[in-house]
Design goal:
The protein is 70% helix and 3% strand. It is mainly alpha-helical. The chain crosses the membrane at residues 6-26, 33-54, 85-109, 121-139, 174-194, 265-289, 301-320, 332-353, 360-379, 399-421, 441-464, 476-498, 523-544.
């Protein structure tokens, strides 16, 4: 761990925190200074993140060929419970870190319209940014949970104070749903912690998991020395290390030994974690907080909510649920995939039924995030004797790309809705029309972003959806057909909205005289989103090159687990069942 890596990685979390503290000393009446300072802080988070994406620095750049965790920061925090300040980046988290940094900077630019309690807004905004970056960087489950909770209160107040007419209702609903998911996650966290046993891992597995301990002189022990100390019980045997929990879930049976209501601890942990994460995605039937939160939230917070926060649910599933609890994920594949497909279909039909422009975009998020759940759940190796890890790899990569693509298009769509709302102060689809003639530049950019959300080939929304549909084919042709059909529904509500808002004969709502062309500030926010939507649609390899090594390694690990653990177990169960049937038949 060199000083440059330590400084840059930790700055992604602590720069916003320090910025929030400094803002407390700013005069509240100097709103322009507060806004510019907050924008500067978001730039100081975005620039090093983008610098790591460039191949200019061998020391600092993200190494795309490495499958494991890099840029590791590991410091003892609460040694008696083996809780560490453990940060790291890999091909799963790095694209989401870039997305968070970019969307947060653009959303701060969109916050210029916020005029009430500006200093408080900016302080909470920076704390929210710190929590989001912390979630994607954390490799200690306890630390992950803390950052997950850190996001809750800032978002609650950002909706509840700066939202629309029903802001209190929306904020409380968001808080309660998210808190429910957090409680379930905490229960699963404790179940895994108290059933973990680092003594079951070899020295090599401890090394892969970056499990660390320090002697009394502050020197880090080698994996072999730590293994010996563990066997002698000189260090805690339970762990919150996410990478170590993955090794335990895939190479030992420590999470299968305890049985609760006929199911293993691993099974229950998967279910609890999955519920907690799909609340954040969100998936049907735990999605109802999202439309209310989006409708009432101010435009920049809707951008953050759709562009980043929803992705944390998918990130938790791929980072924690499947690698730690593969047996349960294998058995519950139909449940996970069914939830994904139901969310896709329900969200699309609900979007078709909306009269509120922003609520329509919110339901479209429910539908498009269903692709993420379906892609992560499409473990096609579970279909009879068919074993096709390539399809699951395609599903995971498609789901991750869908999170990035949807983060760009959804943030753009919510921003474009906000631009119009700031002028005419309503979102009634039936009262719009003819905006193309009054705002041609704005309309062109809005239509591009809406087409990206539709999944038009050549734009960022297409690649992820296509990969997910292809990946699920060998699992179930019926699910694949339904998933493909949802694209038609998406085209229906997107094209209908475009026709009603931008291409109608004339504007029929109030404040028609306020319909002015997009401002330079608004243009500078929309332009990067439009460029990213096109670039990622035409050159998806730009993003895949960061994901490939890590996802391929995770698929290889789970493929090995399936071949060495699950299939022999299934064969043994079938043979035992056949023996029982033969014994019954012989007695008859």
């Amino acid at each position: 761990m060199d000083n440059l890596t330590l400084t840059v990685v930790t700055s992604l979390i602590f720069t916003p925190v320090l910025g929030a503290v400094v803002l407390l000393f700013f005069p509240s009446e100097n709103k322009p200074l507060i806004r510019w300072f907050t924008l500067l802080i978001t730039l100081l988070v975005m620039l090093p993140t983008l610098w790591m994406a460039m191949p200019y620095s061998e020391q600092l750049s993200f190494q795309t060929e490495l499958a494991g965790v890099q840029k590791v920061i590991q410091v003892p925090w609460i040694p008696s419970f083996d809780i560490q300040f453990f940060l790291g980046i890999d091909g799963i988290s790095f694209p989401l870190l870039m997305l968070t940094a970019v969307i947060s900077c653009l959303a701060m630019g969109a916050s210029w319209t916020i005029d009430k309690y500006v200093k408080s807004y900016c302080v909470l905004y920076l704390l929210l940014l710190a929590g989001m970056m912390g979630v994607f960087l954390s490799l200690d489950f306890f630390l992950f949970y803390i950052f997950w909770e850190v996001m809750l209160l800032p978002m609650y107040f950002l909706i509840g104070v700066w939202g629309g007419p029903r802001k209190e209702y929306a904020a409380i609903k968001f808080f309660l749903y998210t808190l429910l998911g957090s409680v379930l996650m905490l229960i699963a966290l404790l179940m895994l912690y108290f059933n973990s046993d680092l003594r079951q891992l070899s020295a090599d597995q401890l090394d892969v998991a970056h499990v660390a301990a320090w002697d009394e002189a502050g020197q880090r022990l080698t994996s072999e020395a730590y293994k010996q100390q563990l066997d002698e019980q000189k260090y805690p045997v339970h762990t919150f290390n996410i990478l170590a929990l993955q090794q335990l879930g895939q190479h030992t049976d420590v999470f299968d030994q305890a049985i609760l209501a006929g199911k293993s601890i691993q099974w229950w942990a998967f279910v609890l974690l999955f519920i907690g994460f799909v609340i954040k995605v969100p998936s049907v039937p735990l999605h109802t907080w999202l439309p209310d939160a989006h409708v009432e939230a101010p435009t920049p917070i809707s951008m953050i909510l759709a562009g980043v926060l929803l992705k944390m649910g998918g990130y938790g599933i791929v980072r924690i649920c499947y690698p730690i609890c593969p047996d349960a994920g294998y058995d519950l594949v139909w449940l996970v995939c069914s939830i994904g497909v139901i969310s896709m279909v329900y969200g699309a039909f609900a979007a078709l039924a909306q009269k509120d422009f922003k609520r329509m975009v919110a339901y479209s998020s429910v539908s498009h995030m269903g692709y993420v759940v379906l892609g992560l759940g499409a473990w096609s190796a579970t279909v009879g004797n068919v074993f096709d890890p390539i399809s699951w790899s395609m599903g995971v990569k498609g789901a991750l790309f869908q999170m990035i693509g949807h983060g760009i298009s959804s943030a753009g769509m919510f921003f474009m809705v906000g631009v119009i709302y700031d002028r005419v102060h309503h979102r009634d689809l039936d009262k719009f029309g003819g905006l193309y003639g009054k705002m041609p530049v704005y309309t062109a950019m809005a239509m591009l972003l809406f087409f990206a959300g539709l999944g038009l080939p050549g734009l960022c929304g297409f690649i992820g959806e296509a990969f997910v549909v292809l990946s699920v084919w060998k699992l179930s042709g019926a699910l694949a057909v339904v998933a493909a059909f949802v694209v038609i529904l998406a085209a229906a509500y997107i094209l209908w909205a475009i026709q009603r808002v931008y291409l109608g004969p004339e504007y029929r709502g109030p404040h028609e005289d306020e319909l002015s062309e997009i401002t330079p500030r608004e243009f500078l926010i929309a332009l990067p989103l439009c460029v990213l939507a096109v670039v990622l649609g035409i050159f998806p390899s730009i993003m895949f090159r960061y994901m490939d090594s890590t996802v391929d390694q995770q698929i290889a690990d789970l493929t090995e687990w399936t071949e060495e653990v699950k299939y022999p177990r299934l064969r043994a169960e079938r043979e035992a069942a056949q023996v029982d049937e033969d014994e019954v038949a012989s007695k008859d």
